[in-house]
Design a protein that fits this description.
Length: about 270
């Protein structure tokens, strides 16, 4: 959320805009466009990947739940994408209706391809979903009211999905085989999700904060995310490479794979 997506220069505030919302700071505007594309793409691809399990879940209940989650996630992306057209930024990313509509993806690499197993689905819902929700919480009181309204509505709709995802984690981790499979998925996905919030003090996020467009910085979002997912996973017997420093009230984690990190697209570059 720090590099400039697609285009290289911002137009003068208001020129060609379809909205009354203006940002005088070009860096903040670039970061805002990037942020919206990131939210939209992760909601879209999470919905698409879950949809591929709508008739293949292990239980009748999971089949129905996948269909409902798909509808919600794709609906959220359709609500978010039009904001890209409202902001005065040339060559902003277009919203997606199909996977190949745009070559550049602003979603985590874990969602690039169909999820090969139910443990992948559980990991995506349990780790990607909460990360997007944390970012939505950060913009729920943004001075960009159109984004704030959508964030508030999406978060309200996410309550049931979040509860369901937590239930899936407990369910799959109940038996040793399922716990082992989920452990493998967490090992694969968690480093990308911890990077996803960006390095502390990232220029784009700082610009958004300065303009009142987001309420949290990179590390604050990452800590809130860990507050949400680490106790659940650890309580289910999943090893998570983090430790709680109670004296400082924060989670401590090791080195993250920043060398593989694509800051613009918010994803790890997989070999």
């Amino acid at each position: 959320m720090s590099e400039r997506p697609e285009g290289t220069e911002a137009v003068a505030p208001g020129r060609g805009a379809q909205s009354e919302f203006l940002v005088d700071n070009d860096d903040a505007l670039a970061a805002l466009v990037n942020l919206i594309a990131v939210i939209g793409d992760n909601e879209y691809f999470l919905g698409r990947r879950v949809s591929e399990w709508a008739d293949a879940g292990p239980l009748l209940e999971s089949t129905a739940a996948c269909a409902a989650i798909t509808q919600d996630k794709l609906g959220h992306s359709r609500a978010i994408y039009p904001l890209l057209e409202e902001l005065p930024w040339p060559k902003a990313p277009t919203g997606l209706q199909g996977e190949i509509d745009r070559a550049r993806r602003y979603s985590v690499s874990f969602l690039d391809d169909p999820l090969p197993s139910w443990s992948n689905v559980v990991a995506a819902l349990a780790l990607v979903g909460p990360a997007v929700n944390v970012v939505l919480e950060a913009v729920e009181n943004s001075r960009y009211e159109a984004l704030a309204r959508r964030a508030h509505r999406i978060l309200d709709e996410e309550r049931l999905t979040s509860a369901y995802a937590e239930g899936l984690v407990r369910q799959i981790a109940y038996e040793e085989r399922g716990r082992k499979l989920l452990q493998e998925r967490v090992n694969e996905l968690l480093p990308e999700m911890l990077c996803w919030f960006g390095p502390e003090g990232e220029f784009g996020i700082e610009a958004l904060k300065a303009e009142g467009l987001t309420s949290m910085g990179n590390e604050e979002m990452r800590q809130r995310y860990l507050d949400r997912i680490a106790p659940l996973l650890q309580g289910c017997g999943i090893e998570v490479p983090v430790e709680r420093n109670e004296s400082e009230g924060r989670w401590e984690y090791g080195e993250l794979p920043w060398k593989e990190w694509n800051q613009l697209q918010r994803r790890l570059e997989r070999s």
